Every structure is written in structure tokens, then in C-alpha cells.
Amino acid sequence: MLRGPLRFDYYFCPVREMSNITVCARFRPLSSKERQDHGDAVCIQCVDSETFIFKDEKTEELTYSFDRVFYDKSEQTDVYRFLAQPIVQDALNAVNGTIITFGQTGAGKTYSMEGPGILECDAAEKGLLPRVVEGIFECTKLADETSKYSIKLSMVEIYMEKVRDLFDLSRDNIQIKESKTQGIMLNGMTEMPVKDPPEALLTLSKGIGNRAVGETQMNVASSRSHCIYIFTIQQESTKDKRARTGKLNLVDLAGSEKVEKTGAEGRILEEAKTINKSLSALGNVINALTCGPTGRGNHIPYRDSKLTRILQDALGGNSRTALLCCCSPSPTNSLETLSTLRFGARAKHIKASPRVAYEDKCIRELEVFTPVKRELRDKLLNELQVSLDIEQVQILEELFIQEGILFDPCSIEESELANEDVASQTISSLQLALEELLSTIAELKKENEVLMARVTAAELHHESISNSSLLVSISCNLGLFRDWLKSLFHFSINHYN
Ligand SMILES: Nc1ncnc2c1ncn2[C@@H]1O[C@H](COP(=O)(O)OP(=O)(O)OP(=O)(O)O)[C@@H](O)[C@H]1O
Ligand SMILES: [Mg+2]
Asked: What does the record list as coiled-coil region(s) (predicted)?
């Protein structure tokens, strides 16, 4: 295979020791409906800024502690400063970061993430998203002159288990890929370069306008999809031309919902089922990460949903991650609040050790290059490096890979991953076939027992049971078993071809 002379090499530096992800709880003020139902009653009692007591009619008092608890009077700025600001600062130093809002429908996830509106709202009510935008651009201004930053924005939603590009609705089934160097990637997702906060906010508001939102009995503007805002922050050193990139993901999850409470029907019901399924896949991943053996032996079911696959880096360690568990304080929703708190308490055990990925332009010697070609190549490279900036070089590299001129460093990984996929699909299919086989055997056993009982009964009571009908029954069962084996055989043949 032709190996190209120009490519980026990545190497990683661990940032810090393993640390647990940051988990905070936030209780919104009681809604007017909750006040109607239960007056001012609440199911939590504040102890301090990290601890509170949960109590409702059904359970005994439970004490919960998180990195920080934001009560109903907390300000949006408190949440930003504690939860997001350190992650923003790290992302500017090429450490990937993820901030997730989680919780029951109507609990305040989107309010915490966006605020009442992304473009115009009371300054105090601005959510994490506009504050992150401001924070990023402020940090780039403060950086020393040798660092040049470029910021790109992407927005996708996972709607009915499909990843949709919110900046280009024609891309409604984006594929998720994994590269050993760059982690989880969304293939072909739009990346919008933004140069200042107003441009970034305008771009984000267009994406938000495309997001799936619906009305339920629990929330007039309920998010019907999981939404992911992705900031790609590239820092290039003008001194040595080294570049490094930090990715910051803000994830506004759709809320878990009890269908009888939300009054979901038709499309809203289908959406609710898909949302609940992917949230339980998220719960399974958190369980697998926090219990059982660590290391290669422990299978983490990231591939069970698009959500967990996209969050693989955030949960699997290579990201600074913060989780905001949004809750209602009302006794009406105490069960859902308890389940959100349990989720948060478990997630707190996840450990992370994010790394910085450096990219170095380097020249690879090529076996097939003759000295003349090599000389020409070096000349061309030198000229390119002088006249092009890093972004143009990247575009060229991508083009060369597409044309087959350059070797794609991800292709081997992709084929390895594809093989892994086929292997895991085959294992699941065989497991399914085995389960079917076992249930058929169980059925046949039962039939056999019935027949045996009939024979015994006939013998005991000297009943004349027709031998022929017994034989017909046995041969019928055997026929069923034979057909089933045949179909299993055809399934295997087709599957392996
Ligand atoms: N901290 C808060 N202060 C004031 N109002 C809030 C707060 N949190 C939430 N709300 C209000 O509660 C309502 C529901 O909030 P929001 O839409 O953020 O819920 P959600 O968790 O995103 O629900 P879903 O999962 O259905 O999308 C909104 O009207 C919002 O303005
Ligand atoms: Mg929402």
C-alpha cells in the first residue's frame, strides 16, 4: 500500500491523575401545577451546599451528597462557574470536556443548558450554552500571542435512534465512527467556523430552531431528542506550528418520562419509548463502568444505543466530564427524583483521566519513493508548509486520502472495528439461536411429559388410546423440530455468507 509522505501524527500526554467525574444536583423551583397539587411541600431538605436529605411518604430519610447541590434559589451563573468554567478552560488547553444535563422530563435540563432563550433573555437567566460561548472567546483573547485559536461549532440530535445534523437537515442519519487517535467521530457532520460570540449564538439559535420539541402534559416545550452541541477548539502555536485540539460537548438529554403522567400518545408515545430505551442503555453503561471488574475483561455496552456510543469518550475516561442531575423538588415527582439521584450517585464512581492529543506534521519515508521523487516531494512540501495554513493542509490531506494518494490512518482501525461489529453481531445471533433452541427443547419436553402422562393414564385405566393418534402427535412434534433445525441451518449459512 502506498504510504503518503505527508500526514499528521498524534501523540498523547496524560493531563492528570485519574479523578472522578463531577456530579451536581439541581432542584428547580416548584411549578404552578405542583403548587396546585401539593402546596409548598417539597421532598428534600437542605443540609449544606453539598448534602441534602430526601424524604417522601414511601421511603425513609435518605442523605445524598454531591460535588455541589444547587437549590431552587441558585443562579445560572453559580452553575456555570462551578460546573462548566473549569471544563471550558481545559478545553482551550486541548483537554476534551463534556457537560451533560440529565433528569426527568420538565426537571430543568434545557433551562439549565440554554436558559429561557439563547439570543434574548435576562442576563441572569442565561444558561450554560451562552456562558460557555462567552467563556471560550474570553479565554482566547487572554491567550498569549503565540497561540492562534480557531473555533468550530456543530450541533446534532439523536431523534428516534438516528443522528441528525441540526445545521443541515439533509444529513439525517450520520454514522458514528471511532478512531484510535481522535476517538468517537461523527462522519460528515457540519462544522461551522465562528469568530465571535454573536456569530456563535446566531449559529446555535438556527440549530436549536431545528431541534425536535413537542408538548406533553409535563412540559409545554419538551425536548423529544438528545441534543449535542460540539465546540471544536483548535490551538496552533505560531512558534513551532504544533496544533492541538480540544472538543467540548454540551449534552442536553431528553427527559425520562412515565407515559401515564405525560399523557403520551401516537408519535409522542413512540418518541417517549425510544427516549426511555436509550436512557436505560445509558444507565446500563454507567452500571457496567462502576461495578464489576475493571480492565479489558469488563464489557461496557456502549454500542447498545447511539447515545452511549457518542458518549463513549465522555464516560470511558478521555474527557473531563460533569453531570448535572436536574430534579423536581415536589412530592408529586419524588419517585422520578429518587431515580435521578440514584443515577447521579452511581455515576459519581466513574473515573476519568483525559489526555491531550498533539498533532505534529511529520514526513514519512516512503519505500516506493525514488531519490528524484523524494527531492521533488520535499520541495513541494516545503513550499506548501510556507504558503498554507494548518486548515488548508488538513483539507489537502483529506482530499489526498479520498483520492487514495495518502494512506488513511483510520482505515485499519475502521476495518478492525467493522470486524469487531460483525463478530459481536454473530455472537448475538448465535445467542439468540441458542435461546430459541433451548425454548424449543423446553416445549418439546413439556409435550413429551403430556404424552407420557397420557400413556401412563391409558395404561392405568386400561383406556384404549389410539396408538395411531399418539404416533401422529409424536411425528408432528418431530416434524416441527426438523423444520426448526433446517431454518437454523439456513440462517447460519446465510449469515456467514
Ligand atoms: N431553575 C429554574 N428556574 C426557573 N424555571 C425553571 C428552572 N428549571 C426549569 N424551569 C422551568 O421549568 C420548565 C421545564 O423546564 P425544561 O424545559 O428545562 O425541562 P427539561 O428537563 O428540559 O424537560 P424535557 O425533558 O421534557 O425536555 C420550563 O418552563 C422552565 O422554564
Ligand atoms: Mg428539555
From this structure: 427-461
Nearest CA to ligand 1 atom 13: 106
Query: Looking at residues 311-324, what average pLDDT do you find?
Result: 89
pLDDT recorded at residue 374? 58
Distance 415 CA to ligand 1 centre (A): 43
Tell whether ligand 1 has an atom less than 6 A from the beta carbon of residue 263.
no
Q: Whose CA is nearest to atom 23 of ligand 1?
A: 106
Nine-digit cell string for 465: 388410546
Across all residues in the chain, what is the average pLDDT?
82
pLDDT tens digits, 93-103: 999 999 999 99
Work out the number of other CB atoms within 10 angstroms of the CB of residue 233.
23
Regarding the beta carbon of 110 and ligand 1, being less than 6 Å apart is answered yes
pTM for this one? 0.72
Output the known binding site. Answer: 103-110
d(CA 459, CA 461): 6
Ligand 1 within 6 A of CB of 224: no
